[in-house]
Amino acid sequence: MAEKITKRETDYSQWYLDIIKAADLAEHSDVKGCMIIKPYGFAIWEKMKDALDKRFKETGHSNAYFPLFIPKSYLSKEASHVEGFAKECAVVTHYRLKVDENGGGIVVDPKAKLEEELIVRPTSETIIWSSYKKWIQSYRDLPILINQWANVVRWEMRTRLFLRTTELLWQEGHTAHATKQEAIEETEKMLDVYAEFAEEFMAMPVVKGIKSENERFAGADETYCIEAMMQDGKALQAGTSHFLGQNFAKAFEVKFTDKAGKLDYVWATSWGVSTRLMGALIMTHSDDLGLVVPPKLAPIHVAVVPIFNNEEQLTQIKDKLSNLLADLRSKGLTVKFDDDDQKRPGWKFAEYEVKGVPVRIAVGLRDLENNQVEVARRDTQEKKSYSLDGLADNIVALLDDIQKNLFEKALKMRNDSIKKVDSYDEFKKRLESEGGFFAAHWDGTKETEEQIKTDTKATIRCIPLDAVEEEGTCMVTGKPSKRRVLIAKAY
Amino acid sequence: MAEKITKRETDYSQWYLDIIKAADLAEHSDVKGCMIIKPYGFAIWEKMKDALDKRFKETGHSNAYFPLFIPKSYLSKEASHVEGFAKECAVVTHYRLKVDENGGGIVVDPKAKLEEELIVRPTSETIIWSSYKKWIQSYRDLPILINQWANVVRWEMRTRLFLRTTELLWQEGHTAHATKQEAIEETEKMLDVYAEFAEEFMAMPVVKGIKSENERFAGADETYCIEAMMQDGKALQAGTSHFLGQNFAKAFEVKFTDKAGKLDYVWATSWGVSTRLMGALIMTHSDDLGLVVPPKLAPIHVAVVPIFNNEEQLTQIKDKLSNLLADLRSKGLTVKFDDDDQKRPGWKFAEYEVKGVPVRIAVGLRDLENNQVEVARRDTQEKKSYSLDGLADNIVALLDDIQKNLFEKALKMRNDSIKKVDSYDEFKKRLESEGGFFAAHWDGTKETEEQIKTDTKATIRCIPLDAVEEEGTCMVTGKPSKRRVLIAKAY
Fold first, then answer.
1. Which of A67, A87, A155 sits opposite B36 (nearest CB)?
2. What's the ipTM?
3. Which of 327-356 (B) contact A at CB < 8 A?
4. What average pLDDT score do residues A8-34 get?
5. Which residues, including other chains, have CB under 8 Å from residue A430's CB and lie 6 or more apart?
6. Which of A138, A174, B245, B361 has the most beta carbons within 10 angstroms of its beta carbon?
7. Under 8 Å between Cβ of B107 and B94
8. pTM for this one?
9. Could you tell me the CATH number of the domain that includes residue A446?
10. Phi–psi pair at B94, nearest 5 degrees
């Protein structure tokens, strides 16, 4: 606690790291690029998991578990997939250590070399489709709607806590369908689930869209995404849902007999979100005072800080508040009554502020005499006296209001960040000075996309699903374009 | 479905595998020793996880997440730990693949060799204690009560689904304490949590005990365990809780300042249960007809099979039952109403039987005219007519009864399997002919323990916590002994 937090305008990257440290969310481990998710950070991730898992099950999916390891040859089976994933990955080559005969401590036993190297999964399409091959014969075996919560490893050279780590936690849905149409519907349905989760739970507005070919998942026919805008004007891809066509079915020879008795390849989707969402959450709402957590994802909803000088006063306050605490808890809220006598109230206020606890109640004997408590909301820092009468209901309403307010604030920020530009010069200038999303016409070619990236480091984040059809000309080449795409620098 | 299940008395090992296949719980993957946990199996594991996780949190623990990889040198820091774990493990030596210039496909890039090899965690004491070192300075930082749900890898040569797999899912608790006493209390508390879970949720009676030195966890001062008895007379270690003393604190130099200002090493515990419990569950209750799942862990509590000849009849049955289904669901039960018109009722009955669904309701129009349904319980295969009046409450009571009955049946089997023996010859003979637990006197030496193992393949499963003090003589050496220990062949 009392960690100094760098101001956003001074050094945004440092602010981000300071928040993570001060709120005790995560830290680097001794293993390069791998993070330790600390209990408070993990509690937020668990809330995310629970909410998503519930929605996955409501939409007909089941969880399962596939191996951590993938035989090297599997990665090569889908041509573009291996391009995208085989490069930077952890390779298991041996299965035993031994004591060095020359006193060199513990060494790899050269006799225990694997015949075929195993890759620590960077994503599981290949190992899962090699199983689906055994599970699918007929249309009666379809659809398969499976999700898995797992760790994956991508050997990242430059890492940043939550946003880009060598090992990350995620969920990956892998579905198999009898028709193209059904697979596309699934892809879009899961994109909606992600968008709904982002907006309703994370209070983070997102743009639903489709990736350009360059930014597509390695092995997909189409990648759908949700894109969010961070406070520094950089975009963040918060989730992706891929229509995989018949690519993996062809790579793994997965055919089924349809109702008419005809053999065909199976249609596939995959979709995932990861601990990266933690980074998105932090950067959407937090301020220079610390973390801000939307009530629906808060590990602690209400922190109650009694103000007391001695044990007797504490007992009086406890007695008087016991009904309130029980009431709040019966409404499903997590309440922390902080009666630690080793720490002063001011210290506690700062602690709950930096951890982003949505509501803090301070209460002393005088308050109780007046039948009231002081309630502070984290989002606006507003403090107000509340009567003890009907307090639990009022706190529930306040939490709803905080959730809504956080979304509206983020939505305004996001909407303000979107600007139409028609000139490449204006785009380049404003990209540097303002950041944000730029809605611009693009001629649809890889070459132009790459030029924009080379010139500015910005990328086409997506072609929004709700893009209006309008005649225009590409801001770079002047060639015709039918709709605007969103361009931004991104995490 | 309609997979043939080998009878237990014909071939117990095959019966076990047949159950797993027929109930669609898991299967081998293409990666040696790694299993795929299929949706129905995973749903049972999720129920186990949820129940355990709740108890961990109720006892003050938080979840966190530590890296998958452990630097090789860390394993060596605790001397007996490396002995136990460094031998058979997956070693990551490289972090990149590349396209072979000589057309050999994708190969390991020799330039991407790690300076220090990484071990895929077989257990996380070392990586966690290297973090605790940074987190602990004073008694105020203690206790640390952390649990993690994770995958671990132990390179097993001979594997068996759920019971012994190269990759397994588990939870591992890792706690740090200021005093020896507190650490021992934690070790015992978590053993109690495991025992309570095993008996109340899995309906599997366990013996709480302490391991002999030979069977102790590598790095522990004392290993507590819960031991269960399977239907074939072999014991199964279902969970362990380790008092680690100051071993890991010393290995990683983790000291704290106590209240008096004195520096001391921190005291530690660790405790874990794994997907092995799935094997234990299967072998405790299942029969020659298929899986039997105790209601508290059942993914589906009640399967309702309507008997109909046409759409109209189905609609009538549905209408009539809609209140019942809503009632059952409002009581927290998972109900499957199986109106699939492609499968016959008999096929469905067999399917729910083999999957161990605790209660199956069959209902046709004639039943409804009589205001009744047919209810079959999986544990006893008993069928009975129940009135629709008050049916939901009666089903809840029936499920309670099934849960209790399964425990009592397993308890009787377990208790019957325990026999006192005083002669080594009698022990050896009955071990082969009857199996089970043998309560015998042992002189407490490693040598005798090893002799028993060499002679019979049986091991000392534990010294029961409730062992009665009694003077006796070791059945092998005749030396004095103060209490009986439990000896059995084990999984």
1. A67
2. 0.96
3. 342
4. 97
5. A419, A421, A438
6. A174
7. no
8. 0.97
9. 3.30.110.30
10. -135, 160
